[in-house]
Fold FUSC family protein.
Amino acid sequence: MAAARRTAKGVWDRFSASDPGLLRLMAGLRTVGAILLALAVLTLLGTSVNHLVAGAMTAMVATFAIQEKEVRGQAITLLLGVPVALAAISLGALLNSRVIAGDVFFVLLIFGAVYSRRFGDRGTALGLIGFQVYFVSLFVSAEVSALPGLFLTLAVAFASSAIVRFAVVPETPERTLRRLREAFRARLAQLVAHQIELLDAGADDVDGVLDDLRRSTARLHEAALMIQGRLEEGTRDAAAAALLQRRVADAEIAAERLGVLLLNARSAERVDTLTLHLPNASTPMPPRAKIAEDAGTALRRDLNALHLLVVRLVPDDRGTALPYVRNRLLGYREEKGLPKGSPALQDCFRAVGEAARAILGLRLAVDGAQDEEYDTPEAARSREEFAAEEISIAGEAAGADDEDERTGLRRPTTRAAVQVAVGSALAIVGGEFLSTQRWYWAVLTCWVVFLNTASTGEIVVKGYRRLVGTVLGVVAGVALAGAVGNHTWIAFGLVLLCVFGMFFTAPLSYAMMSFFVTAMLGLLYTLLNTYSLDVLVLRIEETALGAACGIIAAVLVLPVRTSHRTDEELGTVLARLRDVVSAAVAQLSGGPPVDLVDLARDLDTALDDLRSSTKPLTHPIAPLRARRQTARYVVALLETCAYHARSLAATAELVPSSKSVAADARLALAGRRITHNIDLIAAHVREEETDGTIESGASIAAMLDSGRHQVLRTGSVAFRVLRHLQRLDEGIMGLARPLGVPLAAREERAAGAAKGA
């Protein structure tokens, strides 16, 4: 029985790790529940199949359109959506027989729906409800005589959505944040488990383990960013939000650092380039490919202990065993009980201690003080450091968000509204030639390819994915329609499965979402007795037409080139990277404390935006292979730089309160060179005139030689800081070549010599 419970918990942990906070699961259940309730009520009222379809589609729209985090805001938007939906269905019925007037109004409605995104989540939701309900009127061929029944159908649909949202599957910011924290715990445990696998992986298995390690590290980072987005609404005050944000960041950075050091310890070819740069340092002997048996056994034991601390990161775990394990691992931070081994291996034990400290901080931030009676001096000092940080955080004021200063057609929402209006007009004209009854499918495709896109390349990729998903969905729709026949409730059951699949896969794959949408439409046409193979083939043609019209509008009307957007995002990433590095180095040099966690998270957000903007360049259908490779290389370098910048920030955060981390004024010299090079690259990306070149020369470690010719102790805080600065310096210099930034003459000669060799 206990084994079954452990297995079930392991399966659940993996599932929650794949769906952070169960957001996709809850969205799917909420939408399916709203549709089910609406269908049940409408069936009891004896409505027709047409009204059942209209009610199901309206309940779906009323549920997924509202994305506000606060419950009060959701209720207000849902209430405002009722008159918007009634107006849309009325105008759809009135204009159904007036072709020209109906088409003109549809284009204006599309423009307004997209333009309303500038007013935030509420404007986006109301615009989406207006557009989709008007589309429902076209889908069910609404007439004026049927309006009373349709009004009742819409009222039932909105009421069903409200009941499911607020009573059956309630969603509050606090509950979402709690699930996200659980997802973070599960992903952290998954990452530590893969790190344990790395110790024992043979030569044939190591590549697969490394892929798992990279994937789990990326998922942990994703969960951390999602938690950040929910903190303000899900915590009691700004200080509590900032505290939890810092603890999550500490845990993420500690886990990342542990993985890097484990990989270094395994590598048979490893030579520490930082140690080579230190004055009078001898070349270290590379460790053996197989970690020493005794040290490996101890490290495996401690990683399993760390995994246990993560798995038991819940408030109902009490007793002396866990505090004992935690205290032993915390001792490694202060060299207490450090097992014998190579410097690289001892780095791993110290990193285990840092990770144990981060887990302790996360537990204190979530559940408050506990188990203090079992503290060793090392654990007590960690608690004192956390308490000092908490006092510092409580006194910090939250900064205001920057507002978009662009106006007129330069504003993204205005530009997108004009583009989609033009594209929809083309889709209406072309769609009428294909079918006078199903032309609106082309308009719908044109509409959706513009949602959540910001460049021409993104629109092209999204149109391609929708077309692929539609073609596959038509095949599935033919099979399902043939299997269902005239069984109405079986068809509705399959429709619900398609709806759930649509919402569950939407954040993962747009092609899969389009597949479920098209399969659902085949079933809906069966319910309306309008199904035929020709209709589904027409669906493919209208989809291709709508995607083409959207791409044409994006290319010809106020175009935003993909390269222009990626340059903007790249400039933002470089600016955020400079902010983090300069602030961290200033604090490590003895400057005043600043909120480095917020700066680091701004960098992470900007880097995620850059990844999204480069997807059209790195997509397999992108024709320019060299450009694709350059984009991947630049993003990979920036991800490495961001990791070292986050680690610097985490170390600098310890300066004001820690007894083991002291400021060093010499670090300011290294920071100036790095920030100068970042400024030069950023200016080049912005196409500004610059006369300077990338500064290179002596390594960071050699620059900071105080003349005493001492070698820094591996694993010390100073050594760690120098290592991160050295990697940052190398990463920034590596960015110069693919971005075409001029290098100093000696650097060019060195690069030429290396290439010739």
Remarks:
- The radius of gyration is 29 Å.
- The chain has four domains: 17-171, 177-279+291-375, 413-560, 562-705+712-745.
- The CA atoms of residues 278 and 701 lie 6 Å apart.
